[in-house]
Amino acid sequence: MIKAILKKIWHWRVVLTISIAIILSVGTTIVLATSQQVEVQANVINIRKGPGLAYDVAGQVKKGQRLTIISERNEWYQVRISDNQVGWVASWLVKNTEVSATTNQVASVISGGTPIYQSNNESSRQLTTLTAGTNVTILYSENGWYEIKYGTSVAWIQQSAVRLSSQVESNAQTENTVITSNTSDATQVVVINSNNTHLRAQPNASAAIVANLSEKSTLTYIKTVNQWYEVKTNSGKTGYLASWVVTLKNKSTDSSAMPKVASNLAESTIVLDAGHGGYDSGALSQSNKYEKNYTLQMVNAVAARLRSAGANVVLTRSGDDYVGLAERAHVSNKLSADAFISIHFDSSQSADSASGVTTYYYNKGRDGKLATSLNKQLAALPLTNRGAEYANYEVLRDNTRPSVLLELGYINNKKDFSYIKSSSYQQTVANSIVNGLTAYFK
Questions:
Q1: What are phi and psi of 47, to 5 degrees?
Q2: What is the crossing angle of helices 423-440 and 291-308, to 10°?
């Protein structure tokens, strides 16, 4: 009888042990199950600091490499590059390898003063400490540690230091990611760039909409939270606006006002910016030709025509060199350029799905006249004119001089590329830009 009872106890002990092991296993893999991974398809692709080709290159990955997705914006994936670094890749250069949704589980810090580290061990550099109740977004689980979002990077926290919730959230942040501007709200205002811009209750795209704002509306700037501006409307409502759809300027000195420029082309200083260069190859044609080579060819053609018209022309690069985006804008600002023109070629998610030429500006008050003058002349090109529109590119945003970014065709469209690589098209573009600048300075 006693032997039978002991045998039953042993049986249930084994069952209980196996059950606990299964539960623990599920608990440690649930974060991985909600992650989505992509695989690099091109031989080499650039990891960028933001979701677009105009952002600086943060690194490179090779064909076959698998990356874990953190979030998605405008057909770009934010991915984990290494233990402490994140960046952005073009979605059309990678393919999904898992079908699951791009979501990340949220955990809450249990105790105050909880440290987070650069790597998943206590001997690595401590980045900061978190207060009790702080929500963190879990990206990955490994050997008793969670990898979490930490600003534009990542960090590690011990699993025992947090309590997992049932919430799944891609926008949770650690408290350390809140960046408050030192500029007083009394001296700066936010101007809406387009109609029906959403004012949100929290600094993320999934937050509730507080109000819909019209173009040219002016709001009081309070502070910056990550890439969002906290603002107050004239009626006293507060909320958040995405920094990339508005313009921040001083009340006293209107930075969107038109700066003084030359009265004719022959007296002007024009900065021409050949997009990409060096290890930043830009977009690829269907035959794997680099955008960086054709932007330089186009800039050289435009420079020759401008110089023959008497303009002083300065190039941000004259060879296959890498130049940072901030440095390109700095050249324009330092020289007080009369016009800054950045040359690029566009790329669509799938080959041959888009075509045409687009003129981009950042600050309508400062750049609008230049954009309109050039776009009017570019309409005569053999490719479809897609018009002039706002874009939050760093080379334009950091510029204090009249500036535009021209996308002169889609490099992964066979028809467009046949023009892009031809010297006759380059000369036609050069003539159009000279004509546009001539009209602009009148």
A1: -90, 125
A2: 50
How many whole angstroms separate alpha carbon 251 and alpha carbon 238? 19
DSSP 247-309: EEEESSS-TTSPPP--SSGGG-EEEEEE--BTTB---B-TT--BHHHHHHHHHHHHHHHHHHT
Q: Residues 6 or more apart from 164 whose CB is under 8 A from it?
A: 27, 30, 105, 106, 107, 138
| Strand 339-346 with 269-274, pairing | parallel
In which element (H, E) is residue 89 found?
A: strand 85-90
CB atoms within 10 A of CB 43: 10
What is the spatial distance between Cα 274 and Cα 315, in angstroms, rounded to a whole number?
Answer: 8
**Cross-strand partners of 89:** 77
C-alpha 353/C-alpha 419 separation (Å) is 16
- Around Cβ 129, how many Cβ atoms within 10 Å? 14
- With beta carbons less than 8 A apart as the criterion, state whether 325 and 405 touch: no
- The mean per-residue pLDDT over the stretch 183-193 comes to 61
What is the rounded CA–CA span in Å between residue 269 and residue 339? 7
List the beta bridge partners of residue 126. Answer: 117
Residue 150 pLDDT level (bands cut at 50, 70, 90):
confident
| Helices 364-378/423-440 angle, 10° precision | 130
Q: pLDDT tens digits, residue range 355-367? A: 999 999 998 889 9
Residues 274 and 150: their CA atoms lie apart, in Å, by 34
Over the range 171-183, which residues count as b (16 or more CB within 10 Å of their CB) and which as e? bbbbeeeeeeeee
